[in-house]
Write a structure and sequence with these properties.
Blueprint lengths: L1 E6 L5 H16 L3 E4 L20 E4 L4 H9 L4 E3 L11 E4 L1 H14 L4 E5 L5 H16 L3 E4 L7 H6 L2 H13 L5 E5 L2 H13 L8 E6 L3 H6 L5 E4 L2 H16 L8 E4 L3 E3 L12 H13 L6 H8 L3 H12 L3 H19 L4 H7 L5 H12 L3 H8 L1 H10 L1
Parallel strand pairs: 1-2, 1-3, 3-4, 5-11, 6-7, 6-8, 8-9, 9-10
Antiparallel strand pairs: 10-12
Helix pairs in contact: 1-9, 3-4, 6-7, 10-11, 13-14, 13-15, 13-16
Length: 394
């Protein structure tokens, strides 16, 4: 058996999903003799690794001592943290720029004109997300307010107490124009921001909408209100890292040294479930759509609710969202279908009924057009059924 060290944090769901991807690869191929200990994202190189004689390493460590270790060893290494550029280690990571762009586009679609970003200055993944988020906002004519903090090395981030920084976050949030849509660089930053808003008596999501990154189940559900978040493809990241290391240990030459995986989706929870709409008629229509879209409403039902003509309401929707009323109804129904596919094992017929589609065929057609996935593909990638089956097999 190949002897492989896995230097990956187990304290976050992101790291645990990477482990799941690695394990899946090993179940499909030859097993390894694996060396690992429980770690946090800020831990350094385990002491045993410096004297360890093995065949390969997969690492998320971002500390200077690990960079030195890599420079001094000839053991094949796959980097998952973008800290070893220049040292020749192949990289498998997340496309952080796409993450920032996805969140900006999500908030823009909800009608926001004022935006904010709160992250960790000096950490490459946070900076990349910030820059892409800010650039996308500016290209759309919006204004982005960035929380200013000192450069944060990973260890300093861990040692910096919640209470010491909370005062600055509260002050920043209190001075933002409202309504404002804010991207947090990660879920724990988002959890901190929601707490700061509670201290400042700022309503979330009505005055400040918040979206995190990572979809960490503990942080997102612990937040009050629950935190919306970007789903990162950590599972595939682990699988590809294992495949790449396997090839390196077999002596194969790897042509492409960098593989960046796009984010999967945004899980919308209460912290961003709001529309920033100035037009009162459109706002009233959107509230009605969000409440009743999955009950099979028609445009005529909305017109009776807001008491304007069809042409007037269509015109106002196009000016506000650059889409039709029908498009917005379908968008709400698709989001509900995605939730049911990911969180339940209901049949497609039942999911179609619960999300407002009369026929499964129409659900499949609209879902594929709107997401790029078939319902089956979406469930396979995001659903709980795959996780249960995987746990049984292992």
């Amino acid at each position: 058996m190949a002897r492989v060290a896995l230097i990956i944090e187990t304290s976050h769901s992101f790291g645990r999903e990477i482990f799941r991807g690695i394990t899946r690869y090993l179940r499909e191929n030859e097993p390894w003799s694996v060396f690992f200990v429980e770690l946090t994202v800020c831990d350094g190189v385990p002491k045993w690794l410096k004297k360890w004689s093995g065949d390969g390493i997969i690492s998320r460590v971002a500390t200077p001592d690990f960079v030195k270790f890599v420079a001094d060893t000839d053991i094949p290494i796959v980097d998952l943290n973008q800290q070893l550029r220049g040292l020749g280690a192949p990289l498998v990571s997340i496309d952080h720029a796409l993450v920032g762009r996805m969140v900006a586009e999500h908030l823009l679609q909800r009608g926001f004109h004022e935006f904010g970003f709160i992250g960790h200055n000096g950490l490459h993944w946070s900076d990349d997300r910030r820059d892409a988020f800010r650039d996308t906002v500016h290209e759309a004519g919006g204004h982005c307010h960035v929380y200013s903090c000192g450069s944060q090395a990973p260890r300093r981030f861990l040692d910096r107490t919640w209470e010491l920084e909370m005062e600055g976050v509260v002050r920043w949030a209190s001075n933002l124009p409202q309504p404002v849509g804010i991207m947090a660089s990660d879920d724990f930053r988002g959890l901190q921001l929601i707490e700061a808003c509670a201290i400042a008596r700022i309503a979330v999501p009505q005055e400040v909408a918040v979206i995190g990154v990572g979809n960490d189940n503990v942080a997102c559900e612990l937040a009050s209100p629950p935190l919306s978040s970007v789903v990162l493809n950590a599972y595939q990241m682990g699988y590809e890292a294992a495949s790449l290391l396997d090839r390196l240990m077999r002596g194969e030459k790897v042509g492409r040294k960098e593989r960046l995986l796009p984010p999967l989706d945004i899980v919308t929870r209460q912290s961003s479930d709001v529309m920033a709409v100035a037009d009162p008629v459109v706002s009233k229509s959107m509230q009605f759509i969000h409440q009743y879209a999955c009950e099979g409403i028609k445009i005529s039902d909305i017109l009776r609710h807001v008491l304007v003509s069809r042409s007037v309401l269509q015109d106002r929707f196009r000016k506000t969202f650059e889409c039709t009323i029908h498009d917005m109804i379908l968008d709400v129904r698709i989001k509900r279908a995605k939730e049911l596919l990911a969180q339940t094992e209901l049949s497609l017929a039942e999911i179609a009924r619960r999300s407002g589609f009369k026929h499964v065929e129409y659900l499949c057609e609209v879902f594929k057009k709107g997401t790029g996935w078939t319902p089956g593909q979406y469930r396979a990638q995001h659903g709980q059924r795959q996780e249960r089956r995987f746990q049984i097999n292992t």
